[in-house]
Specification:
- By secondary structure, the chain is an alpha/beta fold.
- The protein is 48% helix and 9% strand.
- The strands form 2 sheets. Strands 1-9-2-3-8-7-6 form a 7-stranded mixed β-sheet. It has a two-stranded antiparallel ribbon with strand order 4-5.
- β7 and β8 form a beta hairpin.
Length: 410
């Protein structure tokens, strides 16, 4: 007896199911790649306030370009030790983000220190005797003998300027306290003086260049923004530890994760039926419930289940709305079955039976009530139909439906 040769299966029959399974994943990966390219190409660089490489309104890219035009080299950094090791000017964009000890280390380092809008604690740490003047408003004219301020002349002073009150002899207050200069120290009362959107104002660019480069005598500028080593109470956040624009990648990963969840959660193909190990007939379920009620002696629950089921079926037969109470059903059913409303209401919502015999009697009475309601409703429907038929004795016969019937009619 020969053994039948194994049936050969074409390679396409094996490859095609795998391709169909990977099709959705490949499309999703393509959408993710295209979305990432689109976001990266169309979205602006986020930038932080006074970011030296940001072209947004709150960035400082324009000022860096101007400084480069005067021969100054700007080195952006978030490392405090790098700033302290520099010998030129250190510009601190957020002084309040650093602790008092860190600010004093910056002030003790060689070179020039420029603080942008320092608060009370930062001002006291680097410039004792200088304090914030809550009643000051600043002035658009220099009002001092500082050479850089005189060269800048009248400036367009921002509205949010924070003036300072000078209480030391070696410090000079210019522009109504908006700019304070001391040996190797400058305090700027507004961050907007360095921003791209206000740099075109009268005298603002000249004031910034003179303040940062010490009247164009300093060529090296370290632009310090708060990083992970900032130990002050300022607004340093976790995003300072990541490169600019990293938050966009995080949000994109969250979106991709949501898409993956939706993709894996959707049902692939039709519902798969599974044969039940045991087939339980409805009559057996009812008998099982009855035996459980009998074993537990729960005549009250059994009676409540019988009454609720009977009430719902009767309510549907007499066209009452859902949620009708037993009393409402009794009032509507009593004239139909020829009983009093009190008797029907007792059947549908009376007390629990005292023994099994009364429970059996209740079940029989409920069944008879349902039968009576069904018979009465059916009889009423038939009577109404006959009445409508006899009300039109001259009704014409229906029109013929086809040509053959039409010929026979004629």
């Amino acid at each position: 007896m020969s053994t039948p040769a194994p049936r050969e299966i074409a390679a396409g029959a094996l490859v095609r199911p795998a391709w169909q399974r990977l099709r959705v994943g490949l499309v999703l990966a393509l959408v993710i790649v295209l979305g990432a390219v689109l976001v990266g190409s169309l979205a602006d660089r986020p930038g932080q306030p006074l970011d030296p490489i940001s072209a947004r309104t709150n960035g400082s890219k324009a000022l860096v370009r101007i400084l480069a035009g005067y021969g100054a080299t700007v080195v952006p950094t978030t490392d405090l030790n790098t700033a302290i090791a520099g010998s030129g000017t250190v510009l601190v964009t957020a002084p309040d983000a650093y602790s008092t000890d860190q600010l004093q280390r910056l002030a003790a380092a060689p070179g020039r220190l420029v603080l942008v809008e320092p608060g009370t604690r930062a001002t006291t740490a680097v410039a004792p005797g200088v304090s914030l003047d809550p009643n000051g408003r600043g002035d658009e004219f220099p009002g001092c003998r500082d050479a850089g301020a005189i060269a800048a002349g009248r400036i367009a002073l921002p509205d949010d300027v924070v003036p300072y009150d000078v209480g030391r002899v070696d410090a000079t207050s210019c522009y109504g306290g908006a700019v304070v200069s001391a040996p190797n120290l400058v305090l700027l009362g507004s961050a907007k003086l360095l921003q791209n959107d206000t740099l075109a104002g009268a005298g603002v660019a000249a004031l910034d260049v003179n303040a940062i480069t010490a009247d164009r005598t300093v060529r090296d500028v370290v632009w310090l923004r708060p990083g992970g080593d900032a130990a002050g109470s300022g607004p340093a956040s976790i995003w300072d530890l990541f490169p600019d624009g990293a938050y966009r990648a995080f949000w994109w990963l969250i979106a991709v994760g949501a898409l993956l969840v939706l993709w894996r959660a959707r049902r692939l193909g039709g519902v798969v039926t599974e044969p039940l190990p045991v087939i339980v007939r409805s009559a057996e379920v009812v008998e099982g419930h009855g035996r459980l009620y009998l074993r537990a002696g729960a005549r009250d629950r059994a009676a409540a289940a019988l009454r609720a089921a009977a009430k719902e079926r009767i309510r549907a037969r007499v066209a009452l709305p859902r949620g009708a109470t037993p009393d409402q059903v009794a009032v509507a059913v009593a004239p139909v079955v020829g009983r009093s409303p009190a008797e029907v209401a007792w059947l549908l919502g009376g007390p629990a039976p005292a023994d099994d015999a009364m429970l059996l009697r209740l079940a029989i009475d409920l069944d008879r009530l349902e039968t009576a309601v069904g018979g009465a409703v059916s009889a009423r429907v038939v009577a109404q139909s006959d009445a409508r038929t006899h009300a039109r004795p001259d009704a014409r016969p229906a029109a013929p439906t086809d040509a053959r019937t039409d010929k026979e009619h004629r």
